[in-house]
Amino acid sequence: MSNVPATLFTPEADTPPHVATMLARKAAAAAAAGSAIEYYEFGVYGYMAAVIGPLFFPGGNATASLLAILAVFGSAFLMRPVGGIVLGWLGDRYGRKAVLLVTVIGMGIATGAVGVLPVAATAGIAAPLLLLAIRLAQGFFAGGEVTGAAAYVAESVPAGRRGFYGAFTPVGVAVGGALAASVCGITTGALSAQQLHDWGWRVPFLMAIPMVAISATVRRRIDESLAFARSLRESEPPKAPLKEVLDAHVPALVKVFLLSLGQNMGYWVGFVFMNLYLTTYLKYDKTTVFWIMAFVSLTMAVTMPFFGALSDRLGRRTVLAAGFVAYAALVFPMMKLMNHQNIGLAFLAMVIVALPMPIVQSVGYPTYAEQFPTRVRYTGMAFSFNFGAILGGGVTPYIATALIGKTGDLLMPAYLLAGGAIMSLFVLLRVKETAGHRAHRSVRLSVAK
């Protein structure tokens, strides 16, 4: 095992307070801007799955079309570890800033490309193949996005505020989800079913183009992270960061993998799949459900900095444990409440079942960053988190849909989410508390004003 402390972050003692605050705010804004693009795309695809499924996978069986479109959805997650390895290597060798600009531009262009794809009625088998190719490209760039953003923030803020500022990475996640739900809600509400089928489904995907232009502008204005700049002064960057991670940091890899599996189950089952649950299985109005999802996402975004700051005071483990316990306790009764065919009760249930999300999302990312040293942090986070995302995010919605189709039990997703949350609680027992750990102060770093 490496004797390098796992939390080599900013030398805040050597940085003037006003400069540290300015850098922290810029880092948080840049992280949020990029993660919003990532989760806007994944959110739009999930929300529109029931609409675009028959367009790319036509047939008489609606469940089969939905399973096919969810399989393509999951394919993007298979590319995330590949993107994490390649982009993590670039980030650990050459810096975070350039890679984070590449990821946000790549995801945005790929998302917009979905909006101009031909459908099966005009292109035959080429339509789903093109969709699959674009999804794989999206997964590649996403593999270096949210983890790279989380690493960048952790390396750019004072130790005692990493939870608070680190929470703005998942704020972008929630805002991206809210934008996706809002755009889908406006589109489905303003267009007829025929218009939505003919061309309206393209609108949410094309909206990614102006969004990526804004996000790229924000990221062009950031500086390299303080900790990475200091790391280059102390030693040469790693030539093979993945090998170094696998040689010296396997326990950290396993912990982050298992925790991210539970976190991703919470988001993709507890939020994105709930859209399918409410619209496809319980037959609630799509537009109404989209607006419910937008409201819940924005509520999550507002509360995340609070829970991040709380983890700075109470510790990461305590706050994360509360979130996972809430997942396991709330998902069964709230899914049953949704099934009363009352939109008011469904709205209340969705708000309650989403309560653990801002807790786990906001505290998870800073925790993952704190498990690896600076020189291999990007690679370590991207590799472990993205494998957790495959099982928790890419595979779980498909498995949940398949199990419902096979058993007829609409509570199957609840079993998956509760199981993932309980597993994460056991993993937390082996995670050392890292909130408030300070960087070495032996190296002074001058920061230009």
Automatic annotation (TrEMBL):
Pfam families according to UniProt? MFS_1 (PF07690), Sugar_tr (PF00083)
Residues forming the Major facilitator superfamily (MFS) profile domain are: 27-432
Which GO molecular function entries does the Swiss-Prot or TrEMBL record give? symporter activity
Question: Where is this protein localized, as stated in its record?
Answer: Cell membrane
Q: Does the keyword Cell membrane apply?
A: yes
What GO cellular component entries does it have?
plasma membrane
Source organism, top-level taxon: Bacteria
* Membrane topology (UniProt): Multi-pass membrane protein
**Which residue windows are transmembrane per the record?**
64-91, 98-119, 125-153, 165-193, 199-218, 265-282, 288-307, 319-337, 343-360, 381-404, 410-431
SUPFAM superfamilies, alphabetized: MFS general substrate transporter
| InterPro entries, alphabetized | H+-coupled_symporters, MFS, MFS_dom, MFS_sugar_transport-like, MFS_trans_sf
Q: Which UniProt keywords apply?
A: Cell membrane, Membrane, Symport, Transmembrane, Transmembrane helix, Transport
Q: What is this protein called?
A: MHS family MFS transporter
